[in-house]
Amino acid sequence: MYTNNDTTTIFPGAGKRGRKMENRNFGLRIGLCLMLVLLPAAVALADTDITDASYRSVGGDIVITLATSGDTPSVSVFATESPARIVLDMADTNSSVDSSPVSVGMGAVQSFTTLGAGGRTRLLVDLSRPVAYDYSADAGQVVLTIAAGGAAMAQAGAASGMDFRVQNIDFRRGEDGQSRVIVSLDGEGANVAVNASAGMLGVDIFNADLPDHLNQRLDVVDFATPVQIIDAGQRGDGVRLELAVTGLFEHLAYQSGNDVIIEVSEVVQTAIDQDYQVEFYEEKTYTERTGMSWKLNVTRVPV
Fold first, then answer.
1. Which residues on adjacent β-strands are paired with residue 94?
2. What span, in angstroms and rounded, lies between the C-alpha atoms of 257 and 35?
């Protein structure tokens, strides 16, 4: 893709399929236990509250405003093209806003939803097509502006001056056989776009640098997950990952702390058994008072 480096093949260790490339299960279990214990406290100690969500049209652009109280939240934004969505995440933030979808139906914006759980809040915007967008976080409000035109997705938040450096690219096999690609950055709030096509999933991390030793092609076929190849490279002022995927798949992209996480799961087609048969009553007779008989013969019918 972007490099002539040789492909690096990663093999799961004997008896370790289902684990990550590096053996950190013990620490992971401890971390999960601590998360379960501390989750209620995390919710209670969230630094910011979302008190209202509204939208308006300004010169054809759609402006979604989240009113906040408390500290200015740490915001990260990413977008997908298929389906077309913009996702804005806020850490250490509770929401008292109704979680029902708000219908917009103007420009490219179909609806938006504000969801709060576990001390984090997510604004999910459903679009009819990919469009340019920008956001800002100030005292008392978080504002997402969605352009009226049909331009390609912008590098949202580029004006914020936030630059990132990729620290590591990791691969894990999930318990249900899903692929999990973890890109570790040196800070939170990176802007990410994901584009899916047949056999390929492209991930762009804007305003980010990729060290030379991570500019490589990883072969993860032996993990037996949908992702076969991870090809990472520098593209302009951003980092591009191209994931070669086999079969039908669905994906989920999200951020957790400094990590950008992309999960890819296989979609299994449901086959219809052609030998399946429906048996009705073989014979029914109905006699009217006039003495006339009507007979219905229905036998086994293949579906």
1. 49
2. 14
Check whether the bond before 83 is cis (ω within 30° of 0). yes
Please check whether the two domains, 1-45+162-272 and 48-160, share a CATH topology: yes
Helix/strand/coil for 38: helix
88: tokens are: 């804005």
C-alpha atoms less than 13 angstroms from C-alpha of 244 in its C-beta half-sphere: 11
For the chain, give every domain's residue range.
1-45+162-272, 48-160
* Dist. CA 260–CA 184, nearest whole Å: 6
pLDDT digits (tens, 9 = 90+) for 103-132: 998 888 999 999 998 888 999 999 988 888
Q: Quick one: average pLDDT of 3-32? A: 49
What is the C-alpha separation between 204 and 256, in angstroms, rounded? 17
Read off φ and ψ for residue 273, nearest 5 degrees: -70, 115
In CATH, 1-45+162-272 is 3.10.20.30? no
Tens-digit pLDDT profile for residues 74-111:
888 888 877 888 989 888 899 999 999 999 988 889 99
Q: Which of 298, 219, 235, 263 is nearest to 10 (CA)?
A: 219
The first and second tokens of residue 161, run together, are 């001056």
C-alpha torsion sign, points 88, 94, 100, 105: negative
What mean pLDDT value characterizes the chain? 77
pTM of the shown model: 0.53
Would you state the structure tokens that stand for residue 51, as one six-digit string? 């008190």
Cα–Cα distance measured from residue 101 to residue 113, given in angstroms and rounded to the nearest whole number = 5
pLDDT band at residue 135 under the 50/70/90 scheme: confident
Q: Are strands 102-106 and 109-117 parallel, antiparallel or unpaired?
A: antiparallel
